[in-house]
Amino acid sequence: MCIAAAGLLEAGASSPPTTSLTEEEQVRQLAKAPFANDLGPEAINVSGYPSEMQAKYEVFKQRCSKCHTLARPINAQFASAKVWERYVKRMMLRPGSGISGSDGKAIWEFLSYDGQARKTARRAEFEALRRRLLHEFKARYPQRYQELYAGHEDEVVKVK
Ligand code: HEC
Question: Which among 26, 46, 55, 112 has most CB atoms closer than 10 A?
Fold first, then answer.
């Protein structure tokens, strides 16, 4: 199995990728399948963040909007440096990600800072937002909701 196909399967794609697509096209295709995160805000108000973090936000905006909107990471339950390290690496390794090591590091630093400031420090508020997004997602994408979230809603709203 090629690396991209292994990645697709690991990511939980329900059907095998179409072989006529390039690896990059397959990833773009996979990225289109919606998450509840996608229904939330697509920007962060960083006006109160240190200027260094505001600069890293620009790198994040540029690099993490290629395959899905920024809403996907912005409204993810992921907040800690440890969890973001795993996800930033995973996104960087996708064929065609175009994310260099130094950009990946800047993005990881931004998401770890933002995770603390906007999610962990305001946990109740952020988890309430995730509950609302899940609720809306269930109505709009009932089948995908079953695949992704049904039966473990409490777990997937939790900041981690
Ligand atoms: C090359 C395309 C591509 C780029 C660039 C990309 N992503 Fe993704 N992203 C995907 C795909 C495909 C999925 C869905 C499958 C998965 O979870 O890996 C996804 C899903 C996600 C999810 C949801 C994962 C989950 O399981 O809840 C998050 C969060 C995320 N991306 C964050 C990011 C961040 C942060 C960046 C920038 C560092 C980024 N993405 C850049 C392709 C991409």
Answer: 26
Residue 127 and residue 30 in contact, taking contact as beta carbons nearer than 8 Å: no
Give the C-alpha separation, 112 to 3, whole Å: 28
Question: Which atom of ligand 1 is closest in space to residue 88's alpha carbon?
Answer: 38
For range 64-68, the mean pLDDT? 97
The whole model's pTM is what?
A: 0.90
73 CA closest ligand 1 atom index: 29
pLDDT band at 19 (very low <50, low <70, confident <90, very high): low
- Residues within a 6 A CB radius of ligand 1: 11, 27, 30-31, 35, 63-64, 66-68, 72-73, 76, 87-88, 90-91, 94, 96-97, 99, 107
> What does the alpha-carbon distance between residue 120 and residue 126 come to, in Å, rounded to a whole number?
8
